[in-house]
Amino acid sequence: MSREISVDYLARVEGEGALYLAIDGDKVTDLRFRIFEPPRFFEAFLRGRNYLEAPDITARICGICPVAYQTSSANAMEDWLGVELEPGVKQLRHLMYLGEWIESHCLHVYMLHAPDFLGYQSGIHMAKDHPEAVTRGLRLKAAGNRLMQLLGGREIHPVNFRVGGFYRAFEKAELAALTHELEWGREAAAETVDWVSGFPFPDIEIDYEFVALRHSDEYAIVEGRIVSSTGLDLAVSDWPAYFAEEHVEWSNALHARRIGGGSYQVGPMARYNLNFEQLHPAARAAAAIDDAHAAAQAHGVERHEGPGGRVVGHRHRGALRGPGLLGCRPVPGGRGAVAGGQRRCETISARCSVRSRVMRKFSRTYSRAFSPIAFARAGLFSRCRIRKAQPSTEFTV
Q1: Which residues pair with 303 in a beta bridge?
Q2: Domain-embedded: residue 185
Q3: How many Cβ atoms are within 10 Å of 174's Cβ, its own excluded?
Q4: pLDDT digits (tens, 9 = 90+) for 264-321
Q5: What is the residue range of 158's domain?
């Protein structure tokens, strides 16, 4: 049986997009993600302009994630000029970028993504039944906005970012004033991981090629080398030799591909899987507990929640299938995974596949993977950490 699905306006995309699908039986025979927003020709705007204007011009590409464009344009100008930033300036840029991650990802997860998973028309409709979750999401977003206001002068199209550093340095007391809210934010981000881990993810398998930055000394966000899950390792300046952008007749957005290859996956999910070992310990700990939740659900284990909805233990509700939960050793003082919440399971091995934890990303933001503990220089907390690109892999938390 053949059928077509046509969505003229995708309400969950930060921009103007449409989607067309042709399906024959259980196979998709044609997929067209169409960006019908008119081209804005930023490359042309930049020609002949002063190099100091590049960050302010490129920031206008997006009002949600302007720091991404400011950082990349400033990196290009500084590389061209041979400028090496002082460590303190790099850390401040890193912090400002994390502020953007917090506000942008919380907006997407709580207001755009969660309503689809939980069956609501919008975040406003969801708030009626999940007021605490929506309030938490808005407060987390506000924390990210305050970081951007402090470092960038304002949260939308920051004005304090410049080639070579910043225009104004803030006072130490200004940053100290944010400490309490950011400490709360770390706890709220961990609660978000627990909450999102219960969403009904689609049961699909996709063989991704992940592409992301990697840095020898830190979880790569602002700078690094380009690496991939298939073995690429190259300087940023070598990008044009390995990747191509092409125009397709049905969209105003360029389509990118590997030269001599096919499509590839970037963003939080790629960063997470290629750089997991460089995540902050708090992020790795949250990811480990999320993996435990996924393994438990896959093998018929119920979750038990304590005050505030935090998971404090698991109880088996049937015979384990397959390899099950193996090698579980209690360790004093850890977070949940053993009933009572006083100990955690240090090692859990379970056969898992990418299928139930992944949604295909048709654009930069549609179905974006979530990176909730940006406070701790974190990345995506997917339920299964991919070690090798194969249909089914042994995962160890």
Answers
A1: 314
A2: no
A3: 12
A4: 999 989 999 999 999 999 888 888 866 665 555 554 444 434 344 433 333 332 222 2
A5: 42-177
